[in-house]
Amino acid sequence: MPRLAANLSYLFTERPLLERFGAAAACGFEAVEHQFPYGEASERAIRERLREHDLEAVLFNLPPGGEGERGLGGLPGREAEFREGLELALRYCRATGCPRLHAMWGMPDAATSREESRATFVANLRAGAPRAAEDGVTLLVEPLNPRDNPGYPLNRQADAHALVAEVGAPNVKVQFDLYHCQIVEGGVAEKLMAYLGDGPDSNVGHIQIAGPPARLEPDAGELNYAWLLPLIDELGYEGWVGCEYQPAAGTEAGLGWARPWGIRPPPRAAG
After folding, report:
1. Would the pTM count as exceeding 0.90?
2. What is the DSSP string of 172-223?
3. Which residues are catalytic?
4. Among 55, 71, 193, 232, which has the minimal tally of Cβ within 10 Å of its Cβ?
């Protein structure tokens, strides 16, 4: 059965961050992910909440850089900042046991060619992968749709897998977000079958879901997750599936879609 992880950057945001861990656990989640915890809570505070609620941390992003930069990996001249961000993120991983980090490409300026930006990203990933491996961490690259992320250089699954192949490190893999894939290119089931076909040896290191086109609950959109989630299971994927969507009317109120996978909100108090 696919294992669902609550993305605390999107879910339970009715509460302060450190209260979201308990809310997720109360709904049956056994794992959480978070995009950028660095300015919101210390690694020690997050570790304490994970232990208190018997949760796993399964994914963080590397620090995003400045406003609107969406990462530093492909920005020439910013290599030292990329390394500093990686060290900060690995500190959180060591404290919490998180085994995955999403390394974002970033938004190169108009003077930087795609070729130069891509070469910088490849070089940063090649240099960062051995350092991450020392802490047992996998680095992930994720194609993002250009509607929500105008100008982001990585949009298609095949390009992400080509990038990973060029880096050539066993702990650099693809983060497959079905929401982004559907918006950019469709054929989600076909791509799952192509890229998850090797089971645990697949170059897909993490999966995320939401309901396109509006990024709402997975049952509110054009993808049939009641069919896709069992398919992911059948294809041998053993990792977590991150729930990275925007609840339409409160997190708990929209969790009905996840009941077949063991997630349900706690009963409301009487009165």
Report:
1. yes
2. EEEEEEHHHHHHHT--HHHHHHHHSTTGGGSSEEEEEE-BTTTTB-TTSSSS
3. 142, 244
4. 193
